[in-house]
Amino acid sequence: MTAMPLSGAQKCAVLLLLLDEPQAAELLRQLAADEVHAVGHAMLSVAEIEPQAIDTVLDDFLLASRSTAALGQGGAQVRSVLERALGSARAGGVIQQLGPPVSARAFATLDWAEPNTLATLLADEHPQATTVVLAHLAPAVASAVLAALPDAQQADLLYRLARIGTVSSADIADLEAGLDARLGADEPSRPAPPLAGPDLVAKLLNLSSDQARLLTDLAALDPDLAATIAENLFVFDDILRLDARAMQALVREVDPAVIVVALKGASAELRDHVFGAMSARAATQLQDDLAQLGPLKLADVQAAQGELARAVRRLADDGVIMLPGRAGGYV
Fold first, then answer.
1. How far apart are CA 236 and CA 249, in angstroms?
2. What are the structural domain ranges in the chain?
3. In whole angstroms, what is the distance from residue 305 CA to residue 320 CA?
4. What are the tens digits of pLDDT across the range 293-307?
5. 3-state secondary structure the chain
6. Which CATH architecture does the domain made up of 108-189 adopt?
7. Is the distance from CB of 71 to CB of 98 less than 8 angstroms?
8. What is the Cβ-side half-sphere exposure of residue 120, based on CA atoms within 13 angstroms?
9. pTM over 0.85
């Protein structure tokens, strides 16, 4: 249940979730990149909000709308969106108090591009055109773009920024249209995210009842890739998913000194899981050793944790224990 009071992003998320997807998408398209990220995260936090809280958000929205100059890009769109969100009665009252529509901020689409991409885009532009673009970007973005441009151009661009006067709206519109077209034309050449990889293969093998054979066959095709996948098959934090029998076999298999170092960077829950697999005397001794252990290098802790994970995989390959998700391989 979402705690109250809600943040501004959460209130916006509630309103968007009340809309049909096309209308919500259209409104999100009007937001800046950082605003979309904030609202996107907020949507996850208001998924189970109470009906009373929704009413409060709608009332707040009505109140805020009284001082709002414009929404959307046209009266018909505003009326359609608000009626879907608030109902005809409430929407009518809001629309009567809204002024004429305003224009979107120039170069707003560039907020979605990486600074290096923008610098490449501006490399062939006249310095005055680049100056106009920098003047319209958020200061943090403009600074990053300036830093990505050649050093020899930076001082000149700063000088131009300091002395730039008025620029006609027609010239700005032409420049914006040209940059948007070039940015859109570059879209197909951008590398698409990978569909899968070693991590996914490791997950599939973890669920397989024939893991050893498949990994051996993979090693015949690509030994290095098989070794990478094997490292991902069972990691240290997965120890929490081992049952009592497997845990007892693990603590017998691994040197207590290694376990102590590995637990240095472990959660309290995982530590208790390990202690629970030992005798009371052994657990007490391990706890004492852990308490007396001074600061350790992160690399040493990670190496010890990796040794425990490898021990688990070794015990599973020998048939001593059963890994979680592989019950199909046992009777």
1. 15
2. 8-96, 108-189, 234-329
3. 20
4. 888 888 888 888 888
5. CCCCCCCHHHHHHHHHHCCCHHHHHHHHHCCCHHHHHHHHHHHHHCCCCCHHHHHHHHHHHHHHHCCCCCCCCCHHHHHHHHHHHHCHHHHHHHHHCCCCCCCCCCCHHHHHCCHHHHHHHHCCCCHHHHHHHHHHCCHHHHHHHHHHCCHHHHHHHHHHHHHCCCCCHHHHHHHHHHHHHHHHHCHHHCCCCCCCCHHHHHHHHHCCCCHHHHHHHHHHHCHHHHHHHHHHHCCHHHHHHCCHHHHHHHHHHCCHHHHHHHHCCCCHHHHHHHHCCCCHHHHHHHHHHHHHCCCCCHHHHHHHHHHHHHHHHHHHHCCCCCCCCCHHHCC
6. Orthogonal Bundle (1.10)
7. yes
8. 8
9. no
**Domain range 234-329, CATH architecture:** Orthogonal Bundle (1.10)
What is the distance between the alpha carbons of residues 85 and 20, in angstroms, rounded to a whole number? Answer: 9
Same topology, domains 108-189 and 234-329? Answer is: yes
The type of residue at 11 is K
pLDDT at 152 over 50: yes
CB 173 within 8 A of CB 108: no
